[in-house]
Amino acid sequence: MSKTGLTVKALMEALDGAVHGLVAAPRGLGTLVRTAVVAQEEGPLPTAALVVIPSGGAALAAWAERQGASAVAATGTDADGLRGLGLPVLSVDPSLGPEEFAALARAVLETDRTESRHGDLFSLAQTVATLTGGIVSIEDAAGQVLAYSASGEGADELRRQTILGRGCPESFLAHMREWGVNERIWAGEVVEVAERPDLGAARRLVVGIRAGERALGTIWVQVGDHPLAPTSVQVLHGAARLASVHVMRANSGARSTGRDTEELSVGLLTGAFDTEALARHLGADPSTPVAVIALALRGPESDPPWRLDHAAEIASVYAAAYRKDALVIPACGLLYVLLPAATGRPPAAWAGELVQVLRDNLGTPVQAAVAGTAPRMRAVPSLKKVASRTLDVVADRPGQHVTSFEEVRSSVVLRDLFDTLADMPQLRDDRLDALDGEQRRSLSAYLDAFGDVTAAARHLHVHPNTLRHRVRRICSLTGLDLDDAEQRLLAAITLRV
Fold first, then answer.
1. Integer angstrom CA distances of residue 478 from 280, 428, 485
2. DSSP label at residue 194
3. Contact predicate 100/330, CB 8 Å
4. For the chain, what is the mean pLDDT?
């Protein structure tokens, strides 16, 4: 069990979908939790415990408070009825039984993680569940459970036995050996395991987690009440590649965290450090050409930070399925994806698929920009800037889901030019300062239409004669000669700066 524990707040965040909300927190969420138990009035309560209250157990909740519990958890109306406690009260996913939720909380506490959830095995399991529509568990090579998603509806008896026993029952392991499932898993297949009602097992998909020829574990997706997503096999291939990194790190006792990796990865984008050394450290070949893609979530300005973390997790699974050495890097409110030596589908086609997946699962608009391909890692920082500028250009075009730099090259270059000129006021036609807003819009439309009064007037929703009068008035006020090509160019630039 965790020696230090997690605060109630950190535990709630790690449990993610298993906790549906917070009913009460009269003294805040900073209390430490070291273990989780199901309430029963027998014996002393462990120190710093989260106590799970069975249905109708209001008296047990009061007992837990007297025993010094750190927090309590219950489902639905039972949780609402505990508002008067002097403890934090968590509302639990009603599909989880008390023992199952307590086991899940203990498993999270045993990971002893206080860093970012990005990359964590529990988070990965929940992401795979989201993308496949199934019920997920991650096991080590000995069949012991490492992490799993919230059960949701349709969890079978095998699932319950595996989680509560922290390992797969021997009867099912024997079934796998009999049908040669293990050999196919370690050959790199995503294997479909048929339903076995006699073993309490619904249909499943399973993929092996490997490091070279070394078997590290498995990822299981149980089919619940709904069919699995068509891309489930692709998702499992990507998830297995990501899981191998985390399992090896845990097995080695390394203290490097997902946050450490994110910070190092940002160095590839900024160019502030030795790019090639960083690439090698992160498992990428610095001499390999790499496609650079940026993604923006176009939600409200108050969009919660966890949404970008969730998007990074989804993108990581899909990127790992596309290329095992792909990198997904959150930076400056965007996601950057580096796809080394892209082959098969063009990066733009892959980006379009990812954008749709993100939009479907996050419920928010998403746009992608394909900056191009850097000949080697050291050229990534310059393309990073291109990608972010491309997203700036299409921000007001929500229907444009994927854009390449080549499609908007002129707009990007002009924006860079105008940004430079904005800091150099002497490089503009200050005669235009005498114009009001309506006159500036009219002159801009006239210049953009190359002097076509009819087209410009249609754009402004005015009569052509009205626009002709305005243009004459503008020339009179400023002394502008619109027959002079250089004056027209300078005026067009000045109006845009």
1. 60, 14, 16
2. -
3. no
4. 83
